[in-house]
Specification:
Elements (H helix, E strand, L loop, with lengths): L8 H24 L6 H14 L17 E4 L2 E3 L13 E10 L2 E10 L5 H20 L6 H15 L2 E2 L5 E3 L6 E5 L16 E4 L2 E3 L5 E3 L6 E3 L5 E3 L2 E5 L4 E3 L4
Antiparallel strand pairs: 1-3, 2-11, 3-4, 5-9, 6-7, 6-8, 8-13, 9-12, 10-11, 13-14
Helix pairs in contact: 1-2, 3-4
The structure holds magnesium ion (MG).
The site of magnesium ion has 5 residues, from loops.
Length: about 250
């Protein structure tokens, strides 16, 4: 596992800039995600902001992905494609965004409810966010990826939620997806021990029902097979000597 790169302070500074742009994009998209806004309009807001900041999108064109951000609604988990569809009151919206600054990547996601969330949906959103925070808190020098995964999984177990398993967190840096993988569940396998300079994107995806997912006919959108609601939170972090630095929160 020696191939997993550790970033220098200068490199992390570039990633911090990429992360700040992603945080701004997510805030702007969430603010604009009102009933009647189309998901294509939200995508255009993200594209304009990334360009104006002097960055580029790492999602657009990635394996042919046609948009700047992913917007996944209700039972959709990740990789939803923006288009004509309008945001409606009562929607659970997940937005995943990324940016490249001077060759360095950042990647983050947020889920939110349009309107007043029913208690079970509010609990799903809160637990997924809490799991991200638990994973980040566990991501310290000397800790293993398995410990990060376990901290995330424990929040889902306590909340009685499903953990989506085919999609996992990842290393990040010169590429959006680098080694190591960061599963949202314990694998029982030997895993990397974290050290200062390791950079990760941690991204729990939890469901209210079955954790099983499939891919829709557009060959991108990942959806729960039982059509239960799903939430997704993600941040890019840099491991420092004392713990994790959040690169994608203001
Ligand atoms: Mg990611």
């Amino acid at each position: 596992m020696s191939s997993i790169t550790r970033k220098s302070a200068t490199e992390i500074a570039q990633m911090r800039r990429a992360g700040a742009i992603v945080a701004e994009v997510l805030a702007r998209v969430e603010e604009a995600a009102r009933p009647g806004a189309s998901t294509a309009e939200l995508d255009a807001i993200a594209e304009r902001h990334i360009r104006a900041a002097g960055a580029t999108s790492n999602f657009k064109g990635y394996h042919g992905f046609p948009a700047t951000i992913c917007i996944s609604i209700d039972a959709e988990v990740v990789h939803g494609i923006p288009g004509d569809r309008e945001i409606k009151a009562g929607a659970l919206v997940s937005v995943d965004a990324g940016a490249i600054w001077e060759g360095w990547h950042a990647d983050a996601a947020r889920s939110f409810y349009v309107g007043e969330a029913p208690p079970a949906v509010a609990a799903l959103i809160a637990a997924t966010r809490a799991a991200l925070d638990a994973g980040i808190a566990a991501a310290r020098p000397g800790a293993t990826i398995e410990e990060v995964s376990g901290a995330i999984e424990d929040v889902a177990i306590a909340a009685g939620l499903g953990v989506v398993r085919p999609f996992v967190g990842h290393g990040i840096g010169r590429a959006m997806h680098e080694a190591p993988q960061v599963p949202n569940y314990r694998t029982g396998r030997k895993s990397l021990t974290l050290a200062a300079g390791h950079c990760l994107a941690i991204e729990p995806m939890f469901t209210l029902g079955s954790p099983e997912v499939g891919v829709m006919d557009d060959e991108w959108t990942v959806v729960t097979v039982d059509r239960s609601l799903a939430a997704h939170f993600e941040d890019s972090i840099a491991i420092g000597t004392g713990g994790a630095e959040l690169l994608t929160r203001p």
